[in-house]
Structure formats: structure tokens, C-alpha cells
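ingest -> validate -> predict -> emit
validate: passed (alphabet ok, no gaps, 192 aa)
predict: started
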Amino acid sequence: MDLQNFYTEILKLSDTQLVQALTENSQIKLIKKGDVLQHIGSPSTELYFLMKGLLRGYLLDSKGKEVTDCFVYAHGTPVVSSINLGESSLICIEALEDSELIAIPFSVVLPLIGSNLEVIILYNRLLSNSLKMHWENKTVLVQYTAAERYQWFLESYPGLIKRVSHRYIASFLGMTPVSLSRIRRIVRDGEN
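emit:
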């Protein structure tokens, strides 16, 4: 998919001048498995959208241990590492697979957020979707049992159980890898 089609078909932008400006100022960025796209504390300079691949966002706890915050795997998903665009990154974003992203400099995006109604609507839609996803994740972590969290993960993140290291999934679900392994075995044995 070319950049222009991405903006019109995936992001649903209809303003031809806006699409042309974004297309002219965007580039495709390739990131290899294991590479870090954004480090914690480093300034964010670009807005990314995932075209293909798999990314993981993580924080560090008080002991410096990685805690998985999110997975980005769906085509067209925005990849943002801080609440406000252009601020220092709150999470580290690393590639779990070779990945392809669209990169747009914040110097292009930020003025549009303040002046273009179509971009304002898109920005609000993306923020709303992100907030909804994060609240669902946090609610699941607090209200579900470990087995229920695992079942929710299988339903909400189809196919990722085969693509993501189980230690990252365990971290994301707030359990140890040993607990996840035990739950997986119970679920697998219950299906047979």
C-alpha cells in the first residue's frame, strides 16, 4: 500500500491537499527485530503508524524490571510513546518482528492538529480509541482472575500468543511466566 492510499483508505482522510501534504512529508521506516524505536526519556520527533510487523511498549518498574504495557500489531495503528505529541517518551518501544512504519515529523503534524478540522477529528478518534483500549487493559488486570486475563488476551489479541514471547505476555497480563505456563496447560488440557 502506498502512502496516499494509507491516508485515504486507512485513516479515512478526504481532503486531497491534506493527503498530498502528509504524503510528501512522510517516509517509510524499517526497523529490525530487537531494535528500539523509542527509548524512555528520549524526545519523540515523529508520529508513526504500523504498516506491518509487531512492536512492544514497556515501562520499567521501581527495580528496573521491564513491564510490558502494550503490543502494536494491527495495520494502521498509531505508535506513540507519550501522552502529548513531541514530549519525552514515557515508554520504550521495541520491535518484536521486523517491522515497517510510516513516519511523519511532529513539525508537520502538530500545526495540523491545531488548524485542520479533519486532522482534529482524526486525532480525537485515535486518542479515544487508545484511551478505551488502555482502560480495558487496566480493568482486566484489576478485575479478572489470571485465567480470565489469559482468555481475554486470546480473544482480544488474536494470534499473538504464537508471535510474542510468553514472558512478555505474562508481564502484560500481570503474572509470572510460570503462572502463564500453568494456565496455558490447564486451558490446553481442558480442550482435549
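The first strand starts at residue 27 and ends at 31.
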